[in-house]
Amino acid sequence: MLIVGNWKMNGDRASNVQLLRALLEAGETPCSLAICAPHVYLADCAAQLHGSAISLGAQDVSQHERGAYTGEVSAAMLADIGCRYVIVGHSERRVGHHESDALVAAKLRRAWEAGLTPILCTGETRDEYYEGRTQVVLRAQLRGALAGISATADAVALIVAYEPVWAIGTGLAATPSLVQEVHQFLRRELAQLLPRRVPLLYGGSMKPDTAAALLALPDVDGGLVGGASLNAREFLAIANAAKQSPA
Ligand code: PEP
Fold it and tell me: What is the pTM of this model?
């Protein structure tokens, strides 16, 4: 079981130190923890987390390997600074920055080349949900992102997150029955694309009061937590709601 905090574009040096200190002082939780900090703070976080059980991740990565790409951050740089994970294809990038499945696929490849474990985000919009297109959308996102990887599939580490766009930052988490249904679907789809079990995280307004029911579902291996990850008490309450499982 893995709980990942996505800090998004929040925090500053002083508040990051406080937040990480509170997580570190809390000691063991029944699951693994990771936090994905803004690029500019990754080095500070890496230093503070050094030697601890909490892993570090980034929120995005360039599709380019290196070179004249002003403002971009490469996968090799993220690995160099101590990242283990990188979020790829978050809906805030797909929607707000027009990231296509092809771009997401290129970013996944860069992450793998650098030895990072990408957390591939998938999810349908509110309209797609009401039109009953969730499965069609998720299938296209998975196939678009993972097209042609079978040759190297044994080598790649991958986590997939189901994050319904309508549940992100809205306070409206998906119901446990919907999450289980969608995760079961993702599990079946992924089994056709990759030769091994891919951990599946749920994300979208996960809070201490909704976490236990979501994390107890048979096809949920953890959570991707936005807003609640900015508060150590809430993030730890979610982590403590998790049972041990193989993610
Ligand atoms: C997210 O952005 O990945 C997320 C899950 O956000 P929130 O928990 O705030 O809905």
Answer: 0.96
